[in-house]
Amino acid sequence: xxxxxxxxxxxxxxxxxxxxxxxxxxxxxxxxxxxxxxxxxxxxxxxxxxxxxxxxxxxxxxxxxxxxxxxxxxxxxxxxxxxxxxxxxxxxx
Length: 93
Hints:
The protein has helices at about 5-15, 30-45, 55-60, 85-90; strands at about 20-25, 50-55, 70, 75-80. By secondary structure, the chain is of the alpha+beta class. The protein has a 4-stranded mixed β-sheet. A hairpin with a 2-residue loop joins strand 3 and strand 4 (about 75-80).
């Protein structure tokens, strides 16, 4: 283990934190996708900020016409279907 000054540690954590957005209007498939993403983050112990985006105008900014969709660090990784737990874990690793 190495010592890291507090400010460096927090900068390291912030830089390595995943930003995950679940795009969907609140349908059952979107809710299931959100649950799968949250489970994957928890099981991996990943540092992630998860945001649910339901506003159709914000969803359209990602060129997504079929939900649910999962955006990781600004890149649409899954769209139009419910991902498997293993698929989400692979994307987050």
